[in-house]
Amino acid sequence: MNGHRGLRGKALEKIALLSATPTKTPQKSDLTRLYDACPVGLPQNGQFLAQSPISPAELDVLFALCKAAPLLDDVETADRLLKQLSPYLLEAPTQAIYPSPFIRLIEPSPWEALTYDLTSAVLAIGIRHRALHDHVFDCTIGYLRILPSSRQLGFCQTPSIRFSW
Predict the structure, then answer these.
(1) How far is Cα of residue 80 from the mean position of the Cα atoms in its chain?
(2) Is residue 33 included in any domain, yes or no?
(3) What pTM was estimated for this model as a whole?
């Protein structure tokens, strides 16, 4: 869904996919590094994620983690990823993104691509791991509940990005 991806995004996606694929020796270190590249979605310094713009690098990491979600066999790893991604989904309609020439290459828009990938990842975790159904349900319902209020505030529209060259 996220259209054109840069070399960094493709490399991060490969790392996430390879790290999520089950092997005889656990390879959690690469996934852990990717987790660490995105702050956990709890308010920090009184700010929520949406109030702090996402950088293109963080966006690439989020896309990569989302692609890895359907491959996670271990419920503990899936739970950690769900806890990492769910705050981003809940704040996706109002999420600020740093302007960058690379952002405009994401189709249909960075917000739509991010919301699509986050939703797909959360639902994939729920499908594969029964123990996480309640958290997936709460996250999905929470997202659906915030949509009307974010539309009233003028969000949830495909924002236009203007760059000054």
Answers:
(1) 13
(2) yes
(3) 0.75
